[in-house]
Design brief:
This protein is of the alpha/beta class. It has helices spanning 19-22, 27-37, 72-81, 107-120, 135-146, 172-182, 188-198, 210-221, 237-255, 259-262, 265-278, 283-295, 301-308, 325-330, 333-340, 357-363, 420-426, 463-467, 527-536, 547-555, 571-579, and strands spanning 51-56, 85-90, 125-129, 150-153, 161-163, 166-168, 384-389, 392-399, 409-418, 439-443, 474-477, 489-494, 511-515, 520-523. 35% of the residues lie in helices and 13% in strands. It has an 8-stranded mixed sheet. A 4-stranded parallel sheet has the order 2-1-3-4, with helices on both faces. The chain has a two-stranded antiparallel sheet with strand order 5-6. It binds FE2/S2 (inorganic) cluster.
Length: 586
């Protein structure tokens, strides 16, 4: 049965789009109201209450999102208290721990799900419940395209594991202890003891990984209740904030505050400044590019470098610092960070509640210990560098705040791995011709090469070098790395090897030079030799994919455009990139 005429397009005329389904006394309106009544949602013939979708991504397969289960009720209460109707619906749950090859493969699918659920249902606004890495950007990308008023609620960071008396940051601590084990400094008993310690409840990684980074940036962008992005999982404040988010969603519908009006160039510029200041995840660069692409806001990789030049890393949280998200929250969270960054921000940018960044910053308390004063940063000159050159014509990034200062200018011979399996098979080979000065190259792991662009970029230090005390090396790859990872790793090299980028042409022994302060990465091979190799290069055998991965591989863009699908970017964005100035202030 398919009654009724065409529904209004998301983001269409002002007023309640749900009225097109629910108002009136004909048989179609009756059918629609009865459908909602079956879920306990009573709608009058006037249909004058905003219907707010509660997009819930809680799942047993995703421990990071499980705290969201407890927040549906408070969100619904807030919606009803403000005069709306809350309608919960499930979404796919993108959990980084279990999904293979990577949850990133499904980020764009989640965005389509949200956009199409809005398009096809009587929804006037959205509250998104999301937490783990790709859940937040995926859902927000869909909300931006749907362009109905949207508020994000996250579930917070999980409790802190302690191993032999010391706190272990999620991800970061495990990666460090895995290196200890590979170097034979952590025995079986210790390793099994660690596993027991790490089971310490639900919630996101408690380091400044991708989930925490995207929560913080979403708050800075204006899509969350101020002060809410850092509240730990299980904290009693969570329910109050969830209730407030429900109220804000109804008010945003009444005020017609849509994502595309909140997410301006100024909002993205503020987010980039904040990304540097928190020493956030490198993945956020890709997600911001994708979100800007959906909003039709011009976004260039070079904006990352330009806007970070005079921004210090202020937040002392792993992997750039030493604390955990609980420390950032205790220090005042995003509002106190905004206060500290005031001179670097566009204070006029408005959030979904209609408050300016300046207002939120002025109302914030003085930052605590985990947020350094701007005059005494953890690292000078931002958290990221953008590199270009023969090896990365369209750019690459490096998280300088989690790299070794002594390796930011480096020249060394390449040791090349073509794909993850090749790397795993040979990295610990005692005969691998590698030294501490080598440059490890992992090619073939970009968004097309391995659909989803897995977080394989933190190439392990060869065991023989680890045992000799080497803790970092220069690494270059077209893959991503976890936001909880660290090391001198040049990431997201574009174009990637699988589409014929120069990374595909590197051979063992080629000299590679990296100069991060100068923004340069070079392959010291003559043009004639490069031309010879290119002529001999054959594209990798096409992977025989079906279903979603096949569609993804055909349409995914390279990292500087956010790894979105080409047909999902705002139609205006592709045009504006070439004719409009870059975002932000000079
Ligand atoms: Fe889900 Fe880190 S794995 S937040």
């Amino acid at each position: 049965m398919s009654p009724g005429g065409a529904a209004p397009a998301p983001g269409g005329e002002p007023g309640l789009r749900s009225r097109s389904w629910l108002a009136g006394d004909d048989e179609v309106a009756v059918l629609h109201r009865v459908a909602l009544a079956s879920a306990g949602l009573r709608v009058s013939q006037r249909a004058d209450r905003p219907v707010i979708g509660i997009a819930n991504s809680a799942s047993d397969l995703n421990p990071c999102n499980l705290p969201l289960r407890d927040l549906v009720g408070p969100v619904r209460d807030g919606i009803e208290a403000a005069g709306g109707i809350g309608a919960e619906f499930p979404t796919i749950s993108l959990g980084e721990d279990l999904m293979k090859p990577t949850a990133m493969l499904y980020r764009n699918l989640l965005s389509i799900e949200i956009e199409e659920m809005v398009r096809s249902n009587p929804l006037d606004g959205l509250v998104i419940l999301a937490n783990c890495d790709k859940s937040v950007p995926g859902a927000l990308m869909g909300a931006i395209s749907a362009n109905i008023p949207t508020v994000l609620v996250t579930g917070g960071a999980r409790g802190v594991a302690r191993f032999r008396g010391a706190p272990v940051g999620t991800g970061t601590g495990l990666w460090r202890l895995w290196d200890e084990r590979r170097a034979s400094r952590l025995d079986d008993a210790g390793w099994y003891e660690l596993e027991r310690c790490l089971s310490c409840g639900t919630g996101a990684c408690n380091t400044m990984g991708t989930a925490s980074t995207m929560a913080v940036l979403s708050e800075v962008l204006g899509l969350m209740v101020p002060g809410s992005s850092s509240i730990p999982a299980g904290d009693p404040r969570s329910a109050a904030v969830a209730r407030q988010a429900g109220q804000v969603a109804v008010q945003a519908v009444i005020a017609a505050r849509r994502p595309q009006s909140v997410l301006t160039g100024a909002a993205f510029a503020n987010a980039i400044v904040a990304l540097h200041a928190i020493g956030g995840s490198s993945n956020a660069v890709i997600h911001l590019a994708a979100m800007a692409g959906r909003a039709g806001v011009p976004f260039r990789l070079d904006d990352i470098a330009r806007l970070g030049t005079n921004v210090g890393v202020l937040v002392d949280v792993q992997p750039s610092g030493s604390g955990l998200m609980q420390d950032f929250d205790a220090a005042g969270g995003v509002p106190s960070l905004l206060r500290e960054l005031s001179s670097r921000l566009d204070l006029a940018a408005l959030n979904v509640a209609g408050q300016s960044v300046g207002h939120v910053a002025a109302a914030a308390r003085q930052a605590g210990a985990a947020i350094r004063p701007a005059s005494a940063p953890l690292h000078e000159g931002g958290a990221f560098g953008v590199l270009r050159g023969l090896l990365a014509p369209d750019g690459a990034i490096i998280k300088t705040s989690a790299a070794s200062a002594g390796l930011l200018r480096h020249r060394g011979p390449a040791v090349v791995f073509h794909g993850y399996d090749d790397m795993l098979a040979r990295i610990d080979d005692p005969d691998l011709p590698v030294s501490a000065g080598s440059v490890l190259v992992l090619a073939g792991c970009g968004p097309v090469g391995v659909p989803g662009m897995p977080e394989w970029g933190m190439i392990p230090i060869p065991a023989r070098l680890l045992e000799a005390g080497v803790t970092d090396m220069v690494r270059v790859t077209d893959a991503r790395m976890s936001g909880t990872s660290f090391g001198t790793v040049v990431l997201h090299v574009a174009p990637e090897a699988a589409v014929g980028g120069p990374l595909a042409l590197v051979e063992d022994g080629d000299m590679i030079s990296v100069n991060v302060p100068a923004g340069a990465i070079e392959l010291e091979v003559s043009e004639d030799e490069i031309a010879r190799r290119r002529a001999a290069w054959t594209p990798p055998e096409p992977i025989h994919l079906r279903g979603w991965p096949a569609l993804y591989a055909r349409h995914v863009t390279q990292a500087p455009l956010g790894c979105d699908l080409d047909f999902l970017r705002a139609p205006t964005a592709a045009l504006r990139e070439f004719i409009e100035p870059v975002i932000g202030r000079s």
